[in-house]
Structures are given as structure tokens and as C-alpha cells.
Amino acid sequence: MIWESLMRFELKSKITPRDALGDLLEKSGFSDEFDKFSEMENLFSFGIGKGVVLYKKRTKVDSPGLYIDVAKPPIEYDSFDGVPISIFCLLVSPLDDSVHLRYLSLFYRLINFSSFRERLLEANSLEGVRKLVKREEEGFES
After folding, report:
1. pLDDT tens digits for 13-40?
2. Would strands 65-75 and 85-94 be described as parallel, antiparallel, or unpaired?
3. Which of 15, 17, 34, 53 is deepest in the core (most CB within 10 A)?
């Protein structure tokens, strides 16, 4: 489940989108790919709407990892809906298509609920976010 893959949650203030990307890549061990992600970001926005950016990295890992930074206050970003960004995420997933698509589906399902996004913005610890995600995922299974 996605809550088990949550590797990092951090609150940030006064950051730029480039800072958020660089920090997520550094914490996940992919800082050498900053230029590649920046080039892709110049071609298309990673903003998925509703104040959320989702960077995706597929690589030779055994299990997915999710990294989240929350920007307070929200920052301007070129997302399709024009909503300033509060939630920056990086999903690192295995090359296996089924695992990658399962985690993307779970992520989109979670992040689509405004109540989940609001509680995520109020969270202040990695363990608190893990509990939040686990509780939401268990609700999907009922």
C-alpha cells in the first residue's frame, strides 16, 4: 500500500518550484537528474491540478517510494488549473508496469479528495501522514 512507501514528508516555507524539485530529488537519491526533470518541466507541467505537483521516476527499485513536501504558503506554478501549489510529490516506482500503475492509481485516488489534501496540509510529521494515508486506503477496501 502507498502508506508503506511514504519515505519522507516535510514542511517548507518560502521555496520555489525549482527548490522543491531539487530537494525531492536529493532526498530520493536522484539529484543527478535535476537537469533532466527541469528540461521536461519546461516542455510540460507536472502540475496535476488542485494545488498538487507529481514528479514520477521509474527505475530499478524493489518497491515504490513516495516523497512529499508541503509548501506553506502555496507558491505559483504553471499548472493547468492555475491553482498555486502546496503539495509537491515524487513517486519513485519499479519498472514493472503493474506496480507503477497500481501506485499511480492509489495516489490519484487519495489526492483527488479535498478532505485528504486539507488534512495533508495540516499534518506535521511523517508518521502522522502515514497514519492519514493508511486510514484513507483502508476506507477504499471497505
Report:
1. 888 999 999 999 999 999 999 999 999 9
2. antiparallel
3. 53
CA torsion sign for 68, 113, 98, 56 is negative
88: which strand partners? 53, 69
Fold of 2-141: Mannitol-specific EII; Chain A (3.40.930)
> Could you read off the pLDDT of 86-118 as tens digits, one per residue?
999 999 999 999 999 999 999 999 999 999 999
All structural domains of the chain with their residue ranges: 2-141
CA-CA distance, 84 to 73, in Å (whole number)?
9
Q: Which three cell numbers stand for residue 94?
A: 519499479
